[in-house]
Amino acid sequence: xxxxxxxxxxxxxxxxxxxxxxxxxxxxxxxxxxxxxxxxxxxxxxxxxxxxxxxxxxxxxxxxxxxxxxxxxxxxxxxxxxxxxxxxxxxxxxxxxxxxxxxxxxxxxxxxxxxxxxxxxxxxxxxxxxxxxxxxxxxxxxxxxxxxxxxxxxxxxxxxxxxxxxxxxxxxxxxxxxxxxxxxxxxxxxxxxxxxxxxxxxxxxxxxxxxxxxxxxxxxxxxxxxxxxxxxxxxxxxxxxxxxxxxxxxxxxx
Length: 254
Ligand SMILES: [Zn+2]
Known about the structure:
Layout: E1 11-13, E2 30-40, H1 43-51, E3 64-71, E4 79-94, E5 100-114, H2 128-140, H3 145-162, E6 168-170, E7 176-178, H4 181-189, H5 195-199, H6 201-206, H7 217-235, H8 237-253
Antiparallel strand pairs: 1-5, 2-3, 3-4, 4-5, 6-7
This protein binds zinc ion.
């Protein structure tokens, strides 16, 4: 399953907080609690507007917001908080007569979500060191793209550790050198059972090599899609195959 990208926008209209997946249970979705959104303007912002009315522009306003979300599965009820600031953007606004007009709209920019929903679901078969790095990457997604990418790369390093891929290589002259992530991915992908899927890891190997500032959201989502495909392929194929074999056995016996 690929990530549903519109759900993960970091800026949202005030009335449209995203129905993100619950971080605790599988079917649950996060819904805004009644009166759970609070937007406040600090005193220095309102005072500046009062004093400099002639120079004031809508985007000079400073506002902070928080939202309390709750999982819609009655048996779960996980509580998630979102926080952020307000940005003024050009948008198509709905008029009472049903027409639309271009104007300025306040949107909520999400700066942090806790506990953070997973960008993709991890099964229990994923080893702890890999799951731990992915968990931090999912948290960082809202705060800093470069930090998120760095953690995705570390998650791939842990996955390669788990698969027994070496971290060092010996040169022709017998010198021992550390392998970088790209070399480790190449070593793993060549001749492996999941070779085709693993080629995709190269996307992540190449991502953020200049510190991550050049990574767009689309690059990041592409990398997340690849990683989900690879992680599922490596850790869940056996379980899925076993289930399929069991079902097949039952059909034969029936
Ligand atoms: Zn839940």
